[in-house]
């Protein structure tokens, strides 16, 4: 797996901070507890969540992070669908996000966050194959392997935790930018790699994943198929490092164990979500970085559009329409889109329709987005398209009302608060704009910045009741900051 390290103008990333005191490669922490009592040294769920939120706060600024509401909603919905059938309760709610990287890989972070490389989705030949890898990662979350492994001090990871928590404590105290000390996704994912989960831990995650897949309505053969593909990729890339095999050691024994557990089981009546194919096509587009990549992708999509049927054909046509739009061929894009819509409706097609309508003018985009939202009231991507269309048409009052409703519908999706703040600011509603930005930073884990926005709102308000409400929010956030500091302090010198 790659390690992305970042330097800021003011300081070093965690990788730099650790250079003097951490071994170049950490050994495998053997003997992770399995299905039993947690180690006394493990991170509590509250500390683990705080660490995960901190990594995500900076990770969202990483250029490889895919900040696409539609993609991340699909992945998180898939993850939570699987997690509902976990053999034992999870200490953390699962949140899944995408990273732009063509390698077939995935990684778990503290706090229930799971990163999926774009190459994993693009390489999957069915939704069950993707579900197999994701269920395996959820198995690690369920067993709290990350939380337990990173506190194994005998292998040097205690230094890593202490450095990370030291940076967090400084940031929570308002003594510096969190980005100066906390890891980006690459360094955080290196935790996953350098833990080198034991064979027992990997087997536990496999078995838990199989159970989740079967009970959630996926075909367990998808895990077998993806496992074989990963093993072939590992053999082809032998000696190059990286890849899923470096974070989750593959073996014939693991494959045999999975096959034996599936053998004799009744065939699964899998009900795949057609959106998988559209998300897969979208990630293939994001992954295509230059003209040569797009040319190869276009050839693949043309073949699929000609030879396949149903959702797969519509998704290929969607990909071709998107490529035409990227190249400035709007007529070609509209033609391919119309053909896709005649084959299989999908929210992704309506999102593209909104973007194409923007070229005809703001009024057209507003009209198309209204129809799209009526068809897909559960789609975050369509909601974002609707909000942006209203904003671009200068209808900020309508946009603000729409975004306030969207923020209530998806209270754990901070993007709507940020869009809301922009409309409120243009309307001159500065106090509310700062409140919305405070909500955005609170949801992304940047509590000190959230407090700053609330204080600015408090200083601008002349209304006694609004001031009282803001005082309560400021006090509540400060109490949360105090609680987080108290949780983290014991780990500073681990």
From TrEMBL:
Entries under Pfam families matching the protein: Peptidase_M48 (PF01435)
Task: Write the signal peptide boundaries.
Answer: 1-27
Q: Which cofactor does it need?
A: Zn(2+)
A GO MF annotation of the entry reads: metallopeptidase activity
Alphabetic keyword roster? Hydrolase, Metal-binding, Metalloprotease, Protease, Signal, Zinc
Boundaries of every Peptidase M48 domain copy: 72-261
Q: Does the record bear Cytoplasm in its keywords?
A: no
Where would one find coiled-coil regions in this protein? none
Q: What's the protein name?
A: M48 family metalloprotease
Q: Which organism is it from?
A: Castellaniella ginsengisoli
Its ancestry begins with: Bacteria, Pseudomonadati, Pseudomonadota, Betaproteobacteria, Burkholderiales
């Amino acid at each position: 797996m790659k390690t992305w390290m970042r330097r800021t103008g003011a300081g070093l990333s965690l990788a730099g901070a650790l250079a003097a005191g951490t071994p170049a490669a950490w050994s495998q922490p053997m003997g992770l507890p399995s299905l039993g009592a947690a180690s006394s040294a493990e991170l509590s769920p509250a500390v683990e969540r705080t660490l995960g939120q901190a990594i995500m706060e900076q990770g969202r600024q990483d250029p490889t992070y895919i900040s696409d509401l539609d993609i991340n909603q699909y992945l998180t919905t898939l993850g939570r669908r699987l997690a509902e059938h976990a053999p034992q309760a999870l200490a953390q709610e699962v949140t899944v996000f995408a990273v732009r990287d063509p390698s077939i890989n995935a990684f778990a972070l503290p706090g229930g966050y799971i990163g999926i490389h774009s190459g994993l989705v693009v390489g999957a030949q069915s939704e069950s194959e993707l579900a197999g890898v994701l269920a395996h990662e959820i198995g690690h979350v369920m067993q709290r392997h990350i939380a337990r492994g990173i506190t194994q001090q005998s292998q040097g990871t205690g230094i890593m935790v202490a450095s990370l928590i030291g940076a967090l404590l400084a940031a929570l105290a308002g003594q510096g930018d969190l980005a100066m000390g906390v890891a980006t996704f690459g360094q955080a994912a290196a935790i996953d790699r350098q833990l080198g989960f034991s064979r027992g831990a990997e087997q536990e995650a496999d078995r838990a994943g199989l159970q989740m897949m079967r009970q959630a309505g996926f075909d367990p053969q998808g895990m077998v198929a993806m496992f074989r593909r990963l093993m072939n990729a590992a053999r082809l890339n032998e000696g190059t490092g990286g890849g899923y095999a470096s974070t989750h050691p593959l073996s014939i024994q693991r494959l045999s164990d999975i096959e034996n557990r599936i053998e004799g089981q009744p065939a699964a009546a899998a009900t795949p979500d057609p959106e998988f194919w559209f998300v897969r096509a979208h990630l293939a587009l994001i992954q295509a970085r230059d003209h040569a990549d797009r040319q190869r992708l276009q050839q693949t999509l043309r073949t699929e559009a000609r030879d396949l049927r149903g959702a797969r054909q519509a998704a290929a046509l969607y990909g071709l329409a998107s490529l035409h739009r990227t190249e400035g061929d709007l007529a070609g894009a509209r033609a391919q889109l119309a053909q896709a819509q005649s084959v299989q409706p999908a929210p992704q097609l309506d999102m593209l329709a909104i973007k194409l309508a923007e070229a005809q003018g703001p009024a057209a985009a507003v009209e198309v987005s209204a129809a799209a939202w009526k068809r897909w009231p559960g789609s975050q991507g369509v909601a974002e398209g609707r909000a942006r269309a209203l904003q671009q048409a200068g209808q900020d009052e309508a946009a603000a009302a729409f975004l306030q409703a969207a923020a209530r519908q998806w209270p754990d999706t901070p993007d709507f608060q940020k869009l809301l703040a922009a409309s409120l600011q243009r309307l001159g509603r500065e106090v509310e704009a700062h409140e919305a930005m405070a909500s955005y930073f609170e949801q992304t884990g940047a509590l000190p910045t959230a407090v700053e926005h609330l204080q600015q709102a408090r200083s601008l308000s002349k209304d006694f009741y609004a001031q009282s409400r803001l005082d309560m929010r400021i006090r509540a956030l400060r109490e949360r900051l105090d609680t987080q500091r108290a949780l983290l302090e014991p780990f500073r010198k681990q």
